[in-house]
Amino acid sequence: MLKIVDLHVRVAGKEILKGVDLAVKAGEVHAIMGPNGAGKSTLGNVLAGREGYEVVRGSVEYRGRDLLALPPEERAALGVFLAFQYPVEIPGVNNTYFLKAALNAQRKFRGEPELDSMQFLKLVREKLRILHVSDELLHRAVNEGFSGGEKKRNEIFQMAVLEPSLAILDETDSGLDIDALRLVADGVNQLRSPERGFLVITHYQRLLDYIVPDRVHVLVDGRIVQSGDKDLALALEEKGYAWARERRLEAPAP
Amino acid sequence: MSSPFLDSQLAAFDAQAPRLPGARLGWLAESRRANRDALAAGGLPGPRVEGWKYSPLRALERRAFVASDAAAMAPALPPGAWTLAGVEGSRLVFVDGLLDRAQSRFVAEEGVSLLGLAEAMDSGSDGLCHALGERYAAADDGFARLGAALAADGAVLRIAPGVQVRQMVQCVFVSRAGPADLAWHARLVVALGVGARARVIEHHLDAGTHANFGNLLTRVTLEAGAELDWLRISGEPEAATAIARTEVELGAGARYSATAIEAGAALSRHELRIRLAGAGARCESRGVFALRGRRHADIALTIEHAARDTTSLVHWRGVADDRARGAFGGTIHVAVGADGADAALTNKNLLLSPHAEIATRPVLEIDADEVKASHGATVGRLEEGALFYLRSRGIPEVEARALLTFAFCREMLDGIAEPALREAVAERLRQLLPQRESLPLDGAEPAPDLIRGAGVGEPGTRQGDLSPAFRARHDDDGDDR
Fold first, then answer.
1. How confident is the model at residue B86 (pLDDT cuts 50, 70, 90)?
2. Closest to B276 in 3D by CA, of B317, B232, B226
3. Which residues of A touch B348 (CB under 8 A)?
4. ipTM
């Protein structure tokens, strides 16, 4: 589904990703762990198509296409979803209106019929029920005045409605208390399916207690220095990123 | 002082004065003559008059205009041209500044007197002297003098004390292209008695493709406890010149609440001068100017807190696209002794094109001791983060920009109490806003100096967000920098 090869990315003239290789198959959950400044969020942003991220070298293939050649809205329509680390507040734009516009724009792009208001509301109600989210969320402006937890839940709710093929969760656990974390993780687990791939970017191992990954990758200083199964996350929790960093130094330079 | 513009207007006065409505009223003839002479002596505000810096008049001064002519009244407009959802009641239609009775509708209501101005002048109606007899004395009163000297029509609305007018009163202004560009001058007089309540709509239609000059002078007087809601929709054709001054005087405990959307014109100036003369008076002004093409709009707001415990609330947003030029000037003066005054003014603006310009000048002058006052003004671009957020959900860039721009402006309509009317005005606003890609397709980046003093954002991103900024434009009326 997703194949990243030797990805080098510069931000503001500084190389942040220094050769990332990663392959995610449909149905898999991959976790990217790493210390602050390792390039985790850069990876999420560059996959979603944010401006200001300059790809110097390498390629990203998504469902047979050159992902990096597409504008963000086309990536979304083709099933790429980024749950933001810091969801943006958009005063004056109603959450429901926004989500309907987004879903219909995606459907239109894919040549599918757009949903009318009734069909859309039905879909939204169903998702709210599954995710145990209050419909009060619908009547507010996008993320405006939302608590940290509400913002993250709104991201998961959007993901549920948009039903992406590849979901990238950028530190969705940051700033959440344990109850909110559990709710968010439950939401993600509901959406796990054989057709859907996940890239879960996180700083802490804690989230992975709830979203159990198939693969864990450790990103240090712009490179994946180690990959393994879920036990790698536990080892990291115990030994710290310094341990992984040292292992990177031992590894031969590419 | 001499210019083709002035000469044409003074000639119009000399030809028309004996035939203007109410010409037999001595005080009116004298006031017209005095204003005409003051105009002849003082001319129009020059480029060095601070308040007119962003409305250069050089191009206008070079043009001559003929007077509007009742005999050449335009044919009826298609029905619905002025229909606003949920608006019934009286509707006065002015074609080239002259009341067109055939298209107008007078709905009688107890305690409400609504007359065409020409009719009111001819009948020598009481109380007009106070509203119409002013001799404009300030150096920058050129257009007010012109209107006072030459206005041939308009409306007089008087509400008796304690009367709550049910229906809105709508004044529609439309002009049309003719063999020569014409100039019209009209006056609105609105007076609410103690405790009276009314709603007025001033609607300038964008119909046809004329390059006429329109000049509207409005005088509003609110006695103690009176309340007036005012909605102004201004959308002139792109080549037109539109000048409007609204003067409002509020008595104790009176309230004036105005909402405006301004589409601009070749030259468009809206002056709102509010005097909070009675204790506890309150005024609100919310508005949006949304400019495209080479349109221009200059909003000049002056609020005088002249009594204790008065409140003013001013919230304006501006959007300029293409090569449009917008200016907002908001001056709040709290006079000596006006303690307990509460003044808040904000003006936020969006530049949607590297060639658009917006200047904002909030000014607070405080001569009283106990005052609460705040002001803030910004000029910026659409926030890159919000734009990316929408796009990352699948909303194409063009739509995402339109959505954010509309959301930015729409809040300003919250002062319109009737949902259907608010929705109709929102729809009008939506039509004014750009629906397409705003930045040039060749990928040209905005010049870094375009937003002076703005936060440039993180290196590597090209958008500064809504940081405090100030953009001055050339004091010439040339199009290019």
1. confident
2. B226
3. none
4. 0.95
